C-alpha cells in the first residue's frame, strides 16, 4: 500500500464505510480525508476526533494491565456508537515521533464492527511498515 | 432659548468584522496566494522559514524554529543519518525508500514536517518575503499541499494554541519549571517535554532533543503553562524585593490568570 490516499481508499472498501480520515491527534490536522465527513465538515470532525483520541491516549488508566511497559500510545483503538453509525479510531504506531490515527465512520446497518476493527489494525500497520 | 438641531456627527469608520475575518482567512501571505494562482515553482524565503513550491502547491518547508524531516527521521533510528545525507546529496527520493523507509511512513513524516515548518514560516513577519523561481524540491512528489488548505490550517493552529493558553511567551523564550504547590499528574508525552525544561532550552531546542515536531512541543508547553508547571525565563531583575505572596498557590494562580488575560 503506497501512501495515505491509497490507505484511505482501501478503508472505504469496507462494507458500510461512510467516510475515513487520517488525523494527527496533537495538532488536529487531517492528513487525508475521503468520503462523507461526519458532522458535515472533515476538518472540524478531524479536530474533534483528535481531542477525543488525545484524552484516550494520554491516560495511563486505559493502558494494558499486564504489568509490562505500556507502548505509546497505550491504547489500540477507540469505538463510539450511536443510533445509526460507529466511529472507529485506530492509532497508527510509527518508528518516528508522531501521533496519528485512522478514523473510520461506519454505517451501523451495513457495517461489520469486528471486521472493521481487524482491517483498520492491518491497514494502520501496512501504512508504516509497507 | 432656541434649540439648534445640529446635524448628526459623521459616522466613524468601523471595521466590518465579518469581512475583516474573511480577509484574514483568505490571506496569511498575499504573495503566496499570488504564487499559487500563477502556479509558480521555486523557493519563497520568509523571515522565519522557507516554503518550496511546485506548480503553485507547497511541497516542502523548512524553518530554523522546527526540526527538519531529516532530524525527525534519524532521531529515533527510523533512518540512518548517512542514508539521509546520501539521498539528499543525490536528490533521490528512491534512495530513502531503498534504505528501508516505506512510502507511507515517508509521506506521514513529510506531511508532518511540512506543516510544522510552515507554521513558523507563515508566522507574521516584519520583513517582506522573497521568491526565487527555480526547479522543484527533490521531495516535491511526496505530498503537495494546496496553498489555501495550508493557510487555513495555519490559522486553525494559531487558534488552537490561543485556546489552550493565550500567553505566547512559552513559544520562543528559554523555559523554567514552575513547580506549583499541588502539581497535577502529567501525561507521558507532556512529561517528556517537561523533563527537558532546564532554564536554558527553548521550545525548538526541546523539539530537537526529542526528535518531535516543534508545533507539537508548543502545544505541550502551552498545556504545561496552563497547568502552572512551566513558565518563560523572566529577564534578570536587579534587587527584586522578596515576594512572600509567591509561595501562596492562590496568589500564584491569580497571577497566571492575570498574565493570561493580559495576553488575550
Tell me briefly what this model is.
Chain A is built from three helices and five strands, in the order αββαβββα. Chain A is an alpha+beta fold and 130 residues long.
Describe this protein's structure.
- The complex is a heterodimer of chains A (130) and B (264).
- With 130 residues, chain A is of the alpha+beta class.
- Chain A has one domain (4-129): 2-Layer Sandwich (Beta-Lactamase).
- Chain A has 3 helices and 5 strands.
- In chain A, a hairpin with a 3-residue loop joins strand 3 (77-81) and strand 4.
- In chain A, helix 1 (4-11) packs antiparallel against helix 3.
- With 264 residues, chain B is α+β, with helices and mostly antiparallel strands.
- Chain B has 2 domains: 29-159, no CATH class; 169-233 and 243-263, no CATH class.
- In chain B, the strands form 2 sheets. In chain B, strands 4-1-2-3-5 form a 5-stranded antiparallel sheet. Chain B has a two-stranded antiparallel ribbon with strand order 6-7.
- In chain B, strand 1 and strand 2 form a beta hairpin.
- The relative contact order of chain B is 0.13.
- The A-B interface holds A 1-4, 7, 24, 26-29, 31, 43, 47, 58-60, 72, 92, 94-100, 126-130 and B 72-73, 75-78, 102-105, 107-109, 111-112, 115, 143, 152-153, 156-157, 160, 187-190, 210-213, 215-216, 219-220.
